[in-house]
Amino acid sequence: MSGARVALALALALLLLPSAAAETVTLTDGDASVSVSYNPVFRTGEAWFIDLEVENGDGYSVEAEFSGAEPRSKALPVAGGASFSFPGATFHSEAFNVPLELRLLRDGNVVANTTVEIDVSVPPAEDLLWLWGGMTVFWLGIAGYAGWLHRRQAELRRQLESHIAAAPDGGEDGD
Amino acid sequence: MKSHSITGALGATGFVLVLLTLWQGLLVMPPARFFTAPNAQRLFYLHVPSGLMAYLAFMLVVAGSGWWLWKRTPQGDRLARCAAELGLVFGAMSLASGTFWMRAEWGPDIVMRFFSDMRLATTLAMWLLLVAYVTWRRQPDSEAVRRGAAIVGMLGVISVPLSYLSSRFLRSDHPVIIGSDNQDALAPEMRLVLYAGLLGFLLLFVALLRTRLELERLEEELLAARLEGSA
Fold this sequence. Notes:
By secondary structure, chain A is an alpha+beta fold. Chain A has helices spanning 3-16, 126-166; strands at residues 23-29, 32-38, 41-43, 48-55, 60-66, 72-75, 80-86, 95-106, 109-121.
């Protein structure tokens, strides 16, 4: 397979890799409607955003709450977009199917609600990069030197043998 | 053939011990205390043994150089020449792994560290002496070249202890592990893994040195055969 084909196959594979596309749920109350978009994967250490798209939102607010964590809320505009976020320190360890309750409130009363589930991912620590960088340089160094010694030894043996074979007495040393 | 078997056995045992050390160091051992980059800290299972092997190599260079200067024995010169090359390799590995660890632990100001931290400065200076030795030996062999190399090699008498002791007595943030009074700095099981790694590296070092000396012998044999052929 040519290099171009390999590159094309790799590019296609990268494009087809599953990505964490935003998910959306809609909360409604009469004419009021709010589309709530969120990333189904919460990465610890990074702020996690909830985006809102509002229609007839005057007097409404949206509240989001992870079980056991302080809820966050946002007063809605009449129409248009808005967003709010959870801090990256909300979670510290990896977790799956963490419930998030979304509520639409009017005058402090819940008028619509739904529960979605997200996954919490812990990105690899930055110093892991340095660990593997150091390891790679290290092993390349020792493997390179051992490989050079081996090749040089084989080459010298070959030269010595060919020299002995080419000697006038054909390598017979009388031993 | 027996010599090859011994070298092979030493190398294989050393390699297995180093792999065991890596497995323990990377996957089993807990992170050491008092470090801000606990993952990169695991580099020390390679960094410490390779640094000690660089010291050992330079001490062999000193011994070989002294032997040659005193008795003019070719074996002394050969030992110094081969050990210098190994010191260059193990020193480079120690400096490289240390630099990666330092970048994770102390931040990006790497170049200035080599000037301001005495352990780093003296170790780099020691390694540069080995570079000078190996570079000098790339000239066509002669009595004068051997003498010059032996004099550079003897500088290890100052350079090795200076580098080794610098983190104890001079301005340095480099941690002291071997022979430290503070035995709490490293848990006993981590110390055991480190010593297993040291043994593995020592066996690898001996195997590589034997191979390098064999290479030197082959080169001399080939040269002698050629001279004999042209005579």
